[in-house]
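User: Could you go from structure to sequence for me? I need the amino acid at each position, not a summary. Structure tokens:
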């Protein structure tokens, strides 16, 4: 009887120990998980802090190289001597990324600078050309008014024949004076860049000539498309036509 009771007591003790073990094991496992999570969280915070120290650009302003490397050293190796300090890979990557960003920014700025420089140069040239044209062609209106006077001198000279000049000495002297006046007027025109256009026999150019009529090439004795007769002399001011010559053009039969 005593032996049976002793065995029962031992069995009960083993069962209680097993029960206590099953109750305490989950609590121990939960503590381990909590400790591991806390360790991981702290490590992530440290990594985040280190990553923040590797940032070169602070808002819109960039840190100087001295400040950047100082922050890196304080973040990863605060107690290490300067001569023994080795730059971590994260800092090198940050410097490389910032270098690439600066290269792109510099390329964009240089492109805008070159475009602005070219535009300014074009504007300067256009302005200079306009100033020069203004100086050259400022007398254009005045020249046009004088052309009528030159035309009247031509008509006066053409209205007198050589026979009339020979028969009337006074008329001959007057004719000579008109011719001298026209010569001096043409010299003055040439001095200021105004030259006559007398395209007799030249190929018709609509930019310089104004066709009034056409005539057969056989009668005009010039090639078709060429000027057969000049009715009124044209004029050009510094290679710019200010009055087209009035002409007759030869055509094919």
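Assistant: Here is the amino acid at each position, in order:
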């Amino acid at each position: 009887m005593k032996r049976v009771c002793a065995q029962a007591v031992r069995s009960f003790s083993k069962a209680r120990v097993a029960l206590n073990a099953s109750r305490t094991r989950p609590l121990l496992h939960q503590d381990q998980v909590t400790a591991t999570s806390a360790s991981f969280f702290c490590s992530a915070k440290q990594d985040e802090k280190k990553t923040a120290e590797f940032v070169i650009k602070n808002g819109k302003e960039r840190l100087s190289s001295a400040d950047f490397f100082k922050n890196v050293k304080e973040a990863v190796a605060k107690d290490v001597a300067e001569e023994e300090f080795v730059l971590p890979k994260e800092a090198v990557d940050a410097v490389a990324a910032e270098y690439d960003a600066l290269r792109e920014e510099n390329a964009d700025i240089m492109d805008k600078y070159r475009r602005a420089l070219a535009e300014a140069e074009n504007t300067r040239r256009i302005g200079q050309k306009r100033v020069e044209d203004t100086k050259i062609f400022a007398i254009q209106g005045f020249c046009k008014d004088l052309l009528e006077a030159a035309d009247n001198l031509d008509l006066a000279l053409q209205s007198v024949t050589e026979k009339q000049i020979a028969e009337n000495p006074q008329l001959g002297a007057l004719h000579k004076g008109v011719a001298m006046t026209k010569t001096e007027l043409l010299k003055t025109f040439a001095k200021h860049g105004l030259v006559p256009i007398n395209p007799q026999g030249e190929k018709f150019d609509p930019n310089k000539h104004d066709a009034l009529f056409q005539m057969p090439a056989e009668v005009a004795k010039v090639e078709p498309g060429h000027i057969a007769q000049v009715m009124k002399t044209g004029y050009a001011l510094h290679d710019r036509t200010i009055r087209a010559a009035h002409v007759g053009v030869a055509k094919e039969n």
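One structural detail worth keeping in mind: The mean pLDDT is 76.
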